[in-house]
């Protein structure tokens, strides 16, 4: 194969965005490090540095590589043996490209996990086989379901410490399977693994003969994530206006859902002006058609007033537009959410003011039951009624209110 054929084949591989999550010390960083190591994506100098770091800060044992150190890049992370921030890593196999996010397990960093999950096509939740299903495991699974991630792989890790006990694996599978049935996640799969030993990560070594499924990498390579993308409803929040000269005025942004073709009739929101797509421009040239999640520049046939924060949609397929809505929120501020307080809400690239009319309830992540609440503390999930200062297009599945205006 010549270099042009190789590059073309690589360019056309599908991309899967994967999240790893779960409770603290369940082995998320070790798993990703093992995937990178087994995929031969570590350079010799990186491997030498990894061996040196493993001797100094490793937790795998004398003479063994601590694969987690490939991900835990902050000094505090290596010293404490924990993940604090979301670490993104890119790797590729002959079948697919991956962007994988290693998310922290501590409860105090739940907001970091929610951020990492916001762009994922699939999630891997790790469970330490010794400890079983914990509250943080359930919290992360609940957040995965809130963000409409349709594919969940439950990796029961550290099976080597339990001599690959089928009984322990089946117990976790039954308990957590019952919980995930309440979350409306269509695709849930369980895999027994040992990240440190490599069992069922990129190959099956025969230590779990009672497991008849695929190893983890095979599942990731064959997973069909196309059902997680909405290719019907075209939504294009305008990020910025591009005008390099008098002959061109385009609107740049990423297609959040749907597709668009040259010549399609469109409507701009909130002004409700009509036009048609004249050109779809990218750095690599013009396109006849563009799909989510491509970043493009749209040029319209008519000179109409559009600015950052507006939205372009197809004519005849408008979103619901409201100034009062109900929503589930993951609260990310150390200052609790309070009813009747005013906040700034980020919507379609612009900031608008909003007021919490009512906190309907807090959700118990262990039982998923609703409970009365007078405030919503950090990392809690609840349902609210929100009024906004200007109408919003209902294209989001969750709302984050980052900054309080007044109380």
Structure description:
The protein is an alpha+beta fold and 407 residues long. The chain has helices spanning 3-11, 28-38, 44-57, 75-80, 110-117, 135-146, 166-180, 216-222; strands spanning 15-22, 87-92, 97-102, 122-128, 151-157, 187-192, 235-237, 240-245, 248-254, 259-261, 265-269, 273-282, 285-287, 289-291, 295-300, 311-314, 321-330, 342-347, 350-363, 370-371, 381-393, 403-406. The strands form four sheets. Strands 7, 8, 9, 11, 12, 13, 15 and 16 form an eight-stranded antiparallel β-sheet that branches. Strands 2-3-1-4-5-6 form a six-stranded mixed β-sheet, sandwiched between helices. Strands 17, 18, 19, 20, 21 and 22 form a six-stranded antiparallel β-sheet that branches. β2 (87-92) and β3 form a beta hairpin. The protein is globular and about 70 Å long. The model is unreliable at 74-84 and 395-407 (pLDDT under 50).
Whole-Å distance between the termini?
A: 65 Å
Fraction in helix: 10-25%
What do the pLDDT scores average to?
84
Classify the beta-strand content into a percent band. Answer: 25-35%
Taken from the alpha-carbon principal axes, the silhouette is globular
**Weakly predicted, low-confidence segments:** 74-84, 395-407
Going by helix content, strand content and strand pairing, the class is alpha+beta
Q: State the helix count.
A: 8
SSE pattern: HEHHHEEHEHEHEHEEEEEEEEEEEEEEEE
Largest sheet: 8 strands, antiparallel
SS elements, strand count: 22
| Rg from alpha-carbon coordinates | 23 Å
Present the secondary structure layout.
Layout: H1 3-11, E1 15-22, H2 28-38, H3 44-57, H4 75-80, E2 87-92, E3 97-102, H5 110-117, E4 122-128, H6 135-146, E5 151-157, H7 166-180, E6 187-192, H8 216-222, E7 235-237, E8 240-245, E9 248-254, E10 259-261, E11 265-269, E12 273-282, E13 285-287, E14 289-291, E15 295-300, E16 311-314, E17 321-330, E18 342-347, E19 350-363, E20 370-371, E21 381-393, E22 403-406
Parallel strand pairs: 1-3, 1-4, 4-5, 5-6
Antiparallel strand pairs: 2-3, 7-16, 8-9, 9-15, 10-14, 11-12, 11-16, 12-13, 12-15, 17-21, 18-19, 18-22, 19-20, 19-21
């Amino acid at each position: 194969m010549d270099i042009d054929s190789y590059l073309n084949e690589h360019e056309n591989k599908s991309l899967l965005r994967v999240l790893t999550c779960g409770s603290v010390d369940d082995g998320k960083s070790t798993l990703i490090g093992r995937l990178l190591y087994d995929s031969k994506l570590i350079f010799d100098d990186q491997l030498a540095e990894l061996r040196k770091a493993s001797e100094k800060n490793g937790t795998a044992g004398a003479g063994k590589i601590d694969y987690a150190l490939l991900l835990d890049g902050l000094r505090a992370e290596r010293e404490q043996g924990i993940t604090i921030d979301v670490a993104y890593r890119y790797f590729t196999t002959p079948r697919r490209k991956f962007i994988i996010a290693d998310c922290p397990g501590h409860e105090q960093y739940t907001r970091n996990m929610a951020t990492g999950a916001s762009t994922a096509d699939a999630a891997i939740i790790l469970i330490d086989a010794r400890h079983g299903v914990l509250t943080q495991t359930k919290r992360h699974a609940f957040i995965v379901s809130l963000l409409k991630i349709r594919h969940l792989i439950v990796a029961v890790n550290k099976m080597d410490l339990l001599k690959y006990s089928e009984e322990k694996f089946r117990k976790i599978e039954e308990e957590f399977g019952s919980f995930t049935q309440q979350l409306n996640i269509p695709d849930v799969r369980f895999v027994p693994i040992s990240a440190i030993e490599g069992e069922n990560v990129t190959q099956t070594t025969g230590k779990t003969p009672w497991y008849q499924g695929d190893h983890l990498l095979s599942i990731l390579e064959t997973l069909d994530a196309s059902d997680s993308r909405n290719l019907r409803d075209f939504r294009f929040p305008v990020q910025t206006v591009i005008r390099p000269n008098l002959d061109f005025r385009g609107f740049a942004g990423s297609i959040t859902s749907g597709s668009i073709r040259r010549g399609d009739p469109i409507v701009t929101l909130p002004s409700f002006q009509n036009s048609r797509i004249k050109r779809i421009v990218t750095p690599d040239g013009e396109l006849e058609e563009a799909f989510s999640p491509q970043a493009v520049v749209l040029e319209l046939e008519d000179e109409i007033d559009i600015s950052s924060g507006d939205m372009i949609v197809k004519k005849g397929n408008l979103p619901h537009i409201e100034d009062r809505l109900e929503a589930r929120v993951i609260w990310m501020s150390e200052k609790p959410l309070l009813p009747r307080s005013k906040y700034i809400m980020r919507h379609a690239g612009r900031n608008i003011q909003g007021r919490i009319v009512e906190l309907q309830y807090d959700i118990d992540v262990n039982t998923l039951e609703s409970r009365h609440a007078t405030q919503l503390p950090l990392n809690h999930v609840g349902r609210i009624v929100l009024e906004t200062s200007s109408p919003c297009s209902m294209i989001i599945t969750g709302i984050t209110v980052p900054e309080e205006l007044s109380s």
